[in-house]
Amino acid sequence: MKRALAIGLVSAQFLLLAALAFLPHGTLWPVTVLLAVVAIVLCVGGAVLAVLGVAGLGPALTASPIPREHAPLVTTGVYGLVRSPIYAGLITGGLGLALFGASAWHLVAWVALVLLLAGKARWEERMLLAEHPDYVAYGARVGRFLPGVGRLRSPR
User: Can you give the pTM of this predicted structure?
Assistant: First the structure.
């Protein structure tokens, strides 16, 4: 059941990203040169953040949100800034695609992506808390998607 949920979440994430990339362009707002530049910066920045997150995981990397058993807890590099840099990168890049797409469907797909990744991150964190006793202190220090935002309550 856990594996099926993981596969479903990853599949939904890729479908939403594909929707953001391939939905027909809308007219909710004009796509000016400035907006296009902002969208490109968000897409490139999000891609860089996601790639740094992938590279930073090393042997802990898995396509699934289910952590590898006995994999080390990564808290350095980009993981010293945010706990979920891959998801943060996807959200950031998705925002760039939504801005460029300029349609209500792009906004719906982006909000769905944010909600999906937020839920996926929370589920993944519950498993990481069970696997790594140090995760509580790490989560209390480091934000989920933005530095300092979404920190876990510190242990008392």
Answer: 0.94
